[in-house]
Every structure is written in structure tokens, then in C-alpha cells.
Write a structure and sequence with these properties.
360 residues; alpha/beta; Rossmann fold; 4-stranded parallel β-sheet; 17 helices; 45% helix; globular; binds 1,3-dihydroxyacetonephosphate; binds iron/sulfur cluster; cytoplasm; metal ion binding; transferase; metal-binding; iron
Length: 360
């Protein structure tokens, strides 16, 4: 039972003390969030991993790319030196907790795209920006090519950083975050080419389209956030006059543009926390987070901005059973599900991640 699992997890906690840090992304199930030492959105969790001092093991309740990022940041050279070379082990309680968006941009596809692009534009002046929701190999590519990582909370600052250094930006892997950010900055025309890695030639765009655009998007999306539709916004506005629509920037353009407010998971929580009692919201982001906001804020009226269930199936894979199993094994000297990025990949990913931490 969950009560028993909680007790067993607590026993490992007691034995490891400060050496153990349990981090939880806001999309995790309540039972996991309740046990986490610290929670956050992608940006905050990477800051927490970067700042970890006493801990030697992070149980990362989130998805694979987040655990990779935590490994890279927690074990960067100066931190390793401070600890006399001792590594922080990052554990992902279930190895099947991936991210379908990150999987849409495989490194060989990106290298192939870059080769093709170099035939038609000056790739020295093309700055790659990758959403943190990407494999470490893609972050390393971005680091090597003078680019930067961003999260949903600093995408604009990262794009501005990139524009100061080149003529064009290529944004991976989420076309929606890339498009919504670029349109807000007024740096691109309506039709940004979207590079389809499965198209036979030039990602499905023409030479002319690629040459005339300041932003090239990658054809990736979040399977959860793409399910919010313009008609859902219309329905809520009609049925609940005065309602505020609050969405994550991974939502498609129409939804993003129709919304009253938008922001990262952390910003969504803040918007609700700072609103007066009686505020009516329809929120377009992962179901677990919206349900938790509903529970925590009975003084407001919170709706989920979709008639269908939009939850992140891979985030949901992390549960108390997996957390308990990996923690007990770790405590018994048998670390399982350790995410360790190889040295060369970590080195270049770090270049791109540090740029991100510096712009904001
Ligand atoms: P944030 O945590 O930056 O809001 O990102 C949401 C998300 O999709 C995480 O996978
Ligand atoms: Fe990936 Fe979307 Fe799940 Fe975030 S919510 S982990 S972007 S599939």
C-alpha cells in the first residue's frame, strides 16, 4: 500500500539524511509531490540541481531529459572539485519516463539537417536554441555550435541572446514554443519554415523559404499541450463570462493567442496564487498540476481547459513503488536507474546550459 511505501521511503530518507534530495516536477502525481523535498518547473529544478551542495544522490521525479540535465549541472567541474571528485548520482525512478517531444529531435536528424542547411544558408550565422526538453546529445550539439538552451520561462531571453550573435535562429524541438516566442518578439513573419526531419529534402521547405526567414522551427510538439484547441477557449468564454484563460506556451498558436495569460508551469502557479478569491480560470496545462491547483485554491473557480484528459503519461510513470524500489536499492549499495551523461556530451551541454543560467 502507499502508506507502507511512504514508511519505507522515509526509512531510506532517515538513513541517508542530507545526502538524499528528492526533486519533483509539478506534473508529478500528488503522492510523489508530497514526498519531494523540493518541487519546481524545469527551470527551477535545473537551478536546484546546479546549486546542490550536501546531497550525493538526487532522486529525480520527472522525465529523462531533466535527470540528464541534473547530472550535468550537479557534476560540473567546479562542483566535482568542491566535493573532492565525488559524483552526485542522479536516479530516475522509472527508466521508461521519457518525453515524446524530446524524442522527436534525434541527434542524427539534427546533424543531417545542419548539413543540408549549410548548402543553402550560412550556418555560422545560424544560432541553435534548444528547449531544455531535449536529449543531452542535442544540448551538446547546441553548445558546440554557439547556441543556448532555454526553458518555457526564459525562451524569449534566450532567443534575444541568440539574435545578438547571428542572423537566424533554429529552434528545437517544440515548434509551438518557438513560434509563440518569435511572434511575441516580432522578429519573424507569419510563416516560419518548420523543418520536418522525415521530408525528403530541406526539411520540406524551399531554399527561398529558408533563406528569407529569421526563424526556422523544428517539427516537434508536446503530445499533452497540443490537445488544447481554440474551440475549448471559445466554449469556456461562452459558458463562463469573465473567465480567464491561462495556458502553457507549448500550446498551439491559436490557443496561445486567444489566452489571457501564459507562462511556464511555475508562472501558472504564481498567477493563480496571486489572484483574488473568486477568480475564474480555465487552465491549459498538464492535468495533475491543474487538479492540484483546484484542490489548493478552493477560493477560486478552476477548470481544466479541455473536455478530454490531457496528462503526461511518462511523468505519470513515476510512482511511490518505483521511488521506493530505487531508493532502497541505492541505500543497499546497489544503485539502479542511474542517469550519467558521458563526459564529452556533458562538457558541451554544460556550455549551452550555463548560457541559459546566465541570461536569467
Ligand atoms: P516547464 O516545467 O518549464 O513549465 O515545462 C513544462 C513541461 O512540459 C515539462 O516537461
Ligand atoms: Fe514531454 Fe509534454 Fe510530457 Fe513535458 S508534458 S514531459 S513536454 S510530453
Amino acid at each position: 500500500s502507499n502508506d507502507e511505501l511512504r514508511d519505507r521511503i522515509q526509512a531510506v530518507r532517515d538513513s541517508l539524511g542530507e545526502r538524499l534530495l528528492i526533486l519533483g516536477h509539478h506534473y508529478q502525481q500528488d503522492e510523489v509531490i508530497e514526498l519531494a523535498d523540493l518541487t519546481g518547473d524545469s527551470y527551477k529544478l535545473s537551478q536546484l540541481a546546479a546549486g546542490s551542495d550536501d546531497c550525493r544522490v538526487i532522486a529525480f521525479c520527472g522525465v529523462h531529459f531533466m535527470a540528464e540535465t541534473a547530472d550535468i549541472l550537479a557534476n560540473r567541474p567546479e562542483k566535482l572539485a568542491e566535493r573532492g571528485g565525488e559524483r552526485v548520482r542522479v536516479i530516475l525512478p522509472d527508466m521508461a519516463a521519457g518525453c515524446s517531444m524530446a524524442d522527436m529531435a534525434a541527434i542524427d536528424q539534427i546533424e543531417d539537417a545542419w548539413d543540408q542547411l549549410s548548402e543553402v544558408i550560412d550556418t555560422e550565422r545560424l544560432i541553435p536554441v534548444t528547449y531544455i526538453n531535449s536529449a543531452a546529445s542535442l544540448k551538446a550539439f547546441v553548445g558546440r555550435h554557439g547556441g543556448i538552451v532555454c526553458t518555457s520561462s526564459n525562451a524569449r531571453a534566450a532567443m534575444e541572446w541568440a539574435y545578438e550573435r547571428g542572423d537566424r535562429v533554429m529552434f528545437f524541438p517544440d515548434q509551438h514554443l518557438g513560434r509563440n516566442t518569435a511572434l511575441g518578439m516580432d522578429i519573424s513573419d507569419e510563416q516560419m519554415p518548420v523543418w520536418d526531419p522525415y521530408a525528403p529534402d530541406l526539411g520540406g521547405s524551399t531554399e527561398e523559404q529558408l533563406q528569407s526567414s529569421k526563424v526556422i522551427l523544428w517539427k516537434g510538439h508536446c503530445s499533452v499541450h497540443q490537445m488544447f484547441k481554440a474551440e475549448h477557449v471559445a466554449m469556456f468564454r461562452k459558458q463562463h463570462p469573465g473567465i480567464k484563460i491561462l495556458v502553457h506556451p507549448e500550446c498551439p498558436r491559436e490557443v496561445f493567442e486567444l489566452a489571457d495569460e501564459s507562462g511556464s508551469t511555475g508562472a501558472i502557479i504564481q498567477a493563480v496564487e496571486s489572484a483574488p478569491a473568486g477568480t475564474k480560470w480555465a487552465i491549459g496545462t498538464e492535468l495533475h498540476l491543474v487538479n492540484r491547483l483546484k484542490q489548493d485554491h478552493p477560493e477560486q473557480e478552476i477548470h481544466f481547459l479541455s473536455p478530454v484528459v490531457c496528462m503526461c503519461a511518462t511523468m505519470y510513470r513515476i510512482d511511490l513503488a518505483h521511488l521506493c524500489w530505487t531508493l532502497e536499492n541505492y541505500a543497499a549499495g546497489n544503485p539502479l536507474n542511474v542517469i550519467a551523461v558521458d563526459e564529452e556530451t556533458a562538457k558541451w551541454s554544460l556550455v549551452a546550459l550555463e548560457r541559459m543560467l546566465e541570461v536569467r
